[in-house]
TrEMBL record:
Purpose of the protein: Increases the formation of ribosomal termination complexes and stimulates activities of RF-1 and RF-2. It binds guanine nucleotides and has strong preference for UGA stop codons. It may interact directly with the ribosome. The stimulation of RF-1 and RF-2 is significantly reduced by GTP and GDP, but not by GMP.
Matches recorded under Gene3D superfamilies: P-loop containing nucleotide triphosphate hydrolases, Peptide chain release factor 3, domain III, Translation factors
Gene behind this protein: prfC
Database matches in HAMAP family: Rel_fac_3 (MF_00072)
Protein name according to UniProt: Peptide chain release factor 3
Compartment annotation: Cytoplasm
Chain residues that bind GTP: D89, T90, P91, G92, H93
Originating organism: Microbispora corallina
One Pfam family per UniProt: GTP_EFTU
Length: 530
């Protein structure tokens, strides 16, 4: 096989995906279960990063440790049935930030993990919106089916109503809560019975039953499940690969990550249905072939908070070609060379040196202070991928320097953090240069800003939270009207000079809109031009 043929073969066996969910739906449990089913390159226990940490010294680590969260995790790589999976982390809980949305630029598929009792929750919905915008195919996993929850058909209705995707169940549950006995597989026709294994931390025991055995052994639960499965077929809720890839349908699986029920099937479904890496369009819309020379997209830049090691790790998704450690790449934004001597595969506290990578893989590059999220790196023929859009902020705070003697350092620091995409910086003539408004999707972004301004620029700051929760794009004409409204303000985003109207809440926004029907107010992500 030639080098190009090998790259295509490697790309075909890659599955690069993220789990999108609301906190507590079971993402960590699922991640660990997935890794246990496969031969994870990193030990599954490192996924949580909550226990057994090695001795760490930096303040940043202190922050992580105090909260018991993992800030450094980026991607977990594991192999399963001859395929290489890259599970890109979408940080949630207290470390929810703009990065959580940005990492979706690196994946080809998303697994939407729902709690059976709670259905579509707010954070799931926000992450789903990003998938919709990027047209990322979504596989739904209804988790915690071993606990009392909603009816299966009712959940399907909710998924369809909230996402607009047609649910096409791959598996249908037999019984629920304590009586969750197994599933009917609508793709391969198998009837699978689950048995709990002691400790739960290994594979679930699965036995295949004939319909006769199912009728005999599973009783009324089986009768009901098979009737419902027939109903699903009658209403045409069958999988259709084209519609799934076109972001019109979502295959649905039922299971319990904690007992490993349905986890192996999810991996099989990812192998069978999730798209492999495909040629990515550049800024002009031309596709960069997978076997073209190396190209990659920076989707996240992590600042190391340790004073002694003030480096940055840039996480790069390989889009084309083969990555080999040591190769010298070109940074599309500046045209400057970038040496990759220190390429790493990073997960949790573990860093291992990475020697080569293929389309779909994630590479961590250290000493990456020149790189920003959305940047392109390439070898050979030049290419630049479209930037990652800015997302709608929901938290706002005015930043001021504590010691006015440090005003210059403060300004420099704010500009730097804005350029790095750590936070969005908004300004207005009314507030002036020394009181920029910081806008974020997660509170941790503010903490990072304060920490870095103090540590790297010597500027201690005071942040005053503003009561706004909603931002929309507007135009100069509407801005005139909006400036006179109570509970609203118009600001300019430094990153792209976009005019943003911010509101205390959607009710205030709606009431202003009712009084002034002609106002331009567009959702931020949809207006991002991608
Ligand atoms: P995350 O916040 O989404 O990462 O959620 P975790 O994985 O930490 O899970 C939250 C809680 O739900 C934990 O107590 C888990 O043990 C529990 N949990 C996760 N999956 C299941 C499941 O399938 N069944 C049951 N009964 N509990 C689960």
């Amino acid at each position: 096989m030639g080098a190009e043929g090998e790259i295509l073969a490697e790309a075909r066996r890659r599955r690069t995906f993220a789990v999108i969910s609301h906190p507590d739906a079971g993402k960590s449990t699922m991640t660990e279960a997935l890794a246990l089913h496969a031969s994870a390159i990193t030990q599954a226990g490192a996924v949580h990063g909550k226990a057994g940490r090695r001795g760490v010294t930096s303040d940043w680590m202190e922050m992580e440790r105090a909260r018991g969260i993992s800030i450094t995790s980026a991607a977990l790589r594991f192999e399963y049935r001859g395929h290489v999976f890259n599970l890109v982390d979408t940080p949630g809980h207290a470390d929810f930030s703009e990065d959580t949305y940005r990492v979706l630029a690196a994946v080809d598929c998303a697994v939407m993990l729902l709690d059976a009792a709670k259905g579509m929750e707010p954070q799931t919905m926000k992450l789903f919106e990003v998938c919709r915008h990027r047209r990322i195919p979504v596989i739904t996993f209804v988790n915690k089916w071993d606990r009392p929850g909603r009816e299966g058909l009712e959940l399907l209705d909710e998924i369809e109503e909230r996402t607009g995707l047609r649910p096409t169940p791959v598996t249908w549950p037999i019984g629920s809560a304590d009586a969750f006995q197994g599933v009917v597989d609508r793709l391969d026709g198998r009837i699978v019975r689950y048995a709990r294994t002691p400790g739960g931390a290994t594979r679930a025991l699965e036995t295949e039953l004939t319909p006769e055995q199912a009728a005999r052994e599973l009783g009324a639960d089986w009768t009901r499940a098979s009737e419902e499965a027939d109903l699903l077929t009658a209403i045409g809720a069958d999988h259709d690969q084209k519609r799934f890839e076109a972001h019109e349908t979502t295959p649905v699986l039922f299971g319990a990550a904690l007992s490993n029920f349905g986890v192996a099937r999810l991996l099989d479904v990812l192998v069978a249905l999730a798209p492999a890496p495909a040629p990515r369009p550049d800024v002009q819309g031309a596709l960069r072939p997978l076997d073209a020379p190396f190209s990659g997209l920076v989707f996240k830049v992590q600042a190391n908070m340790d004073r002694a090691h003030r480096d940055r790790i840039a996480f790069v998704r390989v889009c084309s070609g083969r990555f080999e450690r040591g190769m010298v790449l070109t940074h599309a934004a500046t045209g400057r060379p970038f040496a990759t001597k220190y390429a790493q595969s990073v997960f949790g506290q573990e860093r291992t040196t990475l020697d080569e990578a293929h389309p779909g893989d994630v590479v961590g590059l250290v000493n990456a202070s020149a790189l920003r999220p959305g940047d392109t790196l390439y070898e050979g023929t030049a290419v630049e991928f479209p930037p990652i859009p800015s997302f709608a902020p929901e938290l706002f705070a005015v930043a001021r320097v504590r010691d006015t003697g440090k005003a210059k350092q403060f300004r420099r620091g704010i500009d730097q953090l804005d350029a790095e995409g750590v936070v969005q910086v908004l300004r207005s003539d009314l507030r002036g240069d020394q009181a920029p408004v910081l806008a974020a999707v997660g509170a941790m972004q503010f903490e990072v800003v304060q920490h870095r301004l103090a540590a790297e620029f010597g500027a201690e700051t005071v942040l005053d939270r503003l009561e706004y929760t909603l931002a929309l794009r507007t135009d100069p004409q509407s801005a005139e009207t909006l400036r006179r409204q109570r509970g609203a303000e118009v600001l300019v985003r430094s990153r792209d000079e976009a005019l943003l109207a911010v509101f205390t809440d959607q009710w205030r926004m709606r009431s202003i809109q009712r009084e002034h029907p002609g106002l331009t107010l567009d959702p931020i992500i949809a207006g991002a031009g991608q």
